[in-house]
Task: structure prediction
Amino acid sequence: DQQVKQNSPSLSVQEGRISILNCDYTNSMFDYFLWYKKYPAEGPTFLISISSIKDKNEDGRFTVFLNKSAKHLSLHIVPSQPGDSAVYFCAAKETSGSRLTFGEGTQLTVNP
Amino acid sequence: DSGVTQTPKHLITATGQRVTLRCSPRSGDLSVYWYQQSLDQGLQFLIQYYNGEERAKGNILERFSAQQFPDLHSELNLSSLELGDSALYFCASSETLTSHEQFFGPGTRLTVL
Result:
């Protein structure tokens, strides 16, 4: 039972344009969401997070949007840079819990 | 560099064997998590230790076990290895029992032949 889904295995965008990565979840007990970035041969690196009491969180070029009614979140990267090319994982957790539930990941490629 | 270290980086072994993966958390972090990433899959939570005690369990096989030592480093023991156990094994750490952000190590790539 895949509780966190990233339906796009890959995304390709031009440098300077916006990248939008999407994530859906089914478990209504999830109330904290995170995005991780992963380069080959490295571990996932925390990028940005959002609590369910918010609908938007911004950190520099990265913005995460949360639509609780649709159980959907998205990560916007503006402007996209070639160094952003990596696999992006969406993760969710319950506030009272500890484990992260991850999506399958989306490979983002930013072309110069 | 997240501050979480894992050894070894790569491990190649045969079916039926037993291996131990090691993790040192970030300085000050009391919680250690183990995740498995198989081919083309997301990370699957295996187990969590907090200050030496097991606190949460995911879909961890009975052939797998873990522990956290007084110095807070953790070991994941995999026994009676099967081909399907080939995967990346990540360790993560966080400051408290329910901290939101977890910081991941570089992983151990296990190949079972």
Remarks:
- The first strand of chain A starts at residue 4 and ends at 5.
- Chain A has a mean pLDDT of 95.
